[in-house]
Amino acid sequence: MNIGQAAERSGLPAKTIRYYEEIDLIHPSRAANGYRDYGDQDLHRLCFLQRSRSLGFTIEECRTLLSLYDDEQRASADVKQIAKMKIDLIEKKIKELNSLKSTLSVLVKNCHGDDRPDCPILDDLAGKRSVETI
Amino acid sequence: MNIGQAAERSGLPAKTIRYYEEIDLIHPSRAANGYRDYGDQDLHRLCFLQRSRSLGFTIEECRTLLSLYDDEQRASADVKQIAKMKIDLIEKKIKELNSLKSTLSVLVKNCHGDDRPDCPILDDLAGKRSVETI
DNA sequence: TATAAACCTTACAGTAATGGGAAGGTCAAC
DNA sequence: GTTGACCTTCCCATTACTGTAAGGTTTATA
C-alpha cells in the first residue's frame, strides 16, 4: 500500500512515517514508480510505533522495544525494566507538575484579578515573596 | 557585573542568559572591553525569568508577563488569566500522565519479567490486546 | 485528449529552549 | 610572562516532528 493508506491505518501522519524511515525504524520497499510500498509487516511495525510513542516511549526506547520485539530470544525482564523506568519518570513528572500547580494556584487565589494594577503573581515572579507558595 | 556573576545570582546558566538577550528579553549594556555588564535592573529581570520559567511558563508567556510587569497600567486580571490558563494546561498534562501510568502499570503487572521470551507488554504494543489496559 | 485534483517524491528550513564546543580576546595572579 | 579563569562570537546538536517548495505520477473528469 502507498504511504497515504499506511498513514491512515497506523494513525501516523505520512510525514512522520517518512521520518521513521529516515532514522531507520522502518524500511519499506519501493514500487516501480518510486513510491514507498508498505506490506502488512511494515504496517504492523508502524502500529507498534504509534502505540509505543503514544505511551510516552521516546524514539530510542521504541527502537529498543522493536529490536526486543524482533528478537525471539529476548527476556521479558528486559522489556519490563524499560516500562518500569518509564513509569518512574512519569511519576516524577507528575509530582513536578503537581508542585507547579500548587504554587500557581496559590498565586492565582491571591490575585484579585480586576483592573487594578497590583498583582501578587507578578510580585512573586519578581521575587517579592508576599505569599507562601509552598 | 559580568555574565558569570549574573548567572550565579539569577540561577540561570550564562549560555541561557546570552540566549535571552538574543531573543530580546533583556538588553544589558557593554563594558569598554566588550563584556556584557548587568545592572541591578537586569539582574532583577533575569531572576523574574528564572522564576517564571521554573513555574512552567514558556518563553513567549514570560515575554508577555515581563511586558505586563513593565506596564504600570496593567490589569491584574490579565496576569491572572495567563496563570489560570497555565494551571489548566498543567492539569490536562497531569491527567494524561496518570492515564499513561495506569496503562503501563497494568502492562508491567502482567509481565512475568523473567528470562522467558513471552511478554504482554510487547504483545500490547504490537496490537494484541491480551490485557485490559483501561 | 486535455487537464485538474489528489497523490507521491526529495530536500531544505523551522520549531522550543537550550547545551556543547571551537577559536579567540581579556584579565588577574603568581 | 605565562597560566588559568574569565569573556566573546559563531555554528552545530538536541527531540520528534511539521511546513513548504518544486516537481513527478496517477486518477477522475470535461
Automatic annotation (TrEMBL), chains A, B:
SMART domains for this protein: HTH_MERR
Pfam families: MerR_1
Gene3D superfamilies reported in the protein's UniProt record: 1.10.1660.10
Domain of life: Bacteria
InterPro entries per the UniProt record, alphabetical: CueR (IPR011789), DNA-bd_dom_put_sf (IPR009061), MerR-type_HTH_dom (IPR000551), MerR_fam (IPR047057)
Keywords (A to Z) from UniProt: Cytoplasm, DNA-binding, Transcription, Transcription regulation
Annotated SUPFAM superfamilies: Putative DNA-binding domain (SSF46955)
HTH merR-type domain location: 1-68
Localization (cell): Cytoplasm
NCBIfam families: CueR
PANTHER family: HEAVY METAL-DEPENDENT TRANSCRIPTIONAL REGULATOR HI_0293-RELATED (PTHR30204:SF94), REDOX-CYCLING DRUG-SENSING TRANSCRIPTIONAL ACTIVATOR SOXR (PTHR30204)
Name of this protein: Cu(I)-responsive transcriptional regulator
